[in-house]
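Input record, target 12 of the design panel.
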C-alpha cells in the first residue's frame, strides 16, 4: 500500500510540472497563432472586396450594354443612369459600394478617349460605342494588428453598347 501511494504522489508531482510547462508553451504560441488566424481572415476580406467591386463593375456595364428601352418609357438602357448605378450597387453592397462610388462614361471604342463622362451622355450614342462603368472603394482592415491605411480599389469594365439592331421575324415553315 505504501509503495502504491508513493508512486501516485510522484506521478502527481510530475503532472503538476507538465501542466505548468504546457501553459507556458501555450502562452508563447498563442500570439503567433492569433496573428496567423487574423491575417488569413483579413486577406479573405481583401479578396472578397476585390471580387465584389469587380462583379459590381461588370454588372453595371452589362445592364448598360443591353439593348432595348425601359418598359413603358423611351429611355434606352445605356442612358438609364439610375438603373446602371442600382445594378452596380446591388452587387457591390457587401463591399461598401454606394451610389457615389460608381462613375459612368462613354467612348467610341478601343483606343479612343471618353467623349462623355456624364450620364446620360451629352451626344448621340452610336452603334459600336462603349459604356465604361468604374466602381471604386477602399478596404480598411477590421483587426488593428498593424496601422494599415485604407487600401483603395478601382475596377473599370467596358462593354460595347448594342442598339439599333433590327430583328427579322422568320416566317413559319408551312
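The sequence produced for target 12 reads:
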Amino acid at each position: 500500500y505504501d509503495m502504491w501511494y508513493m508512486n501516485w504522489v510522484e506521478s502527481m508531482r510530475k503532472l503538476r510540472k507538465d501542466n505548468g510547462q504546457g501553459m507556458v508553451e501555450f502562452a508563447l504560441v498563442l500570439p503567433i497563432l492569433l496573428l496567423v488566424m487574423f491575417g488569413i481572415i483579413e486577406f479573405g476580406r481583401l479578396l472578397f472586396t476585390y471580387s465584389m467591386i469587380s462583379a459590381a463593375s461588370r454588372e453595371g456595364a452589362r445592364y448598360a450594354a443591353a439593348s432595348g428601352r425601359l418598359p413603358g418609357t423611351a429611355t434606352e438602357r445605356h442612358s438609364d443612369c439610375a438603373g446602371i448605378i442600382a445594378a452596380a450597387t446591388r452587387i457591390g453592397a457587401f463591399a461598401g459600394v454606394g451610389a457615389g462610388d460608381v462613375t459612368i462614361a462613354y467612348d467610341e471604342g478601343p483606343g479612343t478617349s471618353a467623349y462623355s463622362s456624364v450620364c446620360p451622355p451629352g451626344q448621340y450614342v452610336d452603334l459600336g460605342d462603349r459604356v465604361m462603368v468604374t466602381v471604386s472603394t477602399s478596404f480598411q482592415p477590421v483587426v488593428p494588428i498593424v496601422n494599415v491605411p485604407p487600401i483603395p480599389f478601382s475596377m473599370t469594365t467596358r462593354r460595347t453598347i448594342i442598339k439599333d439592331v433590327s430583328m427579322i421575324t422568320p416566317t413559319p415553315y408551312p
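The helical segments are 2-65, 81-92.
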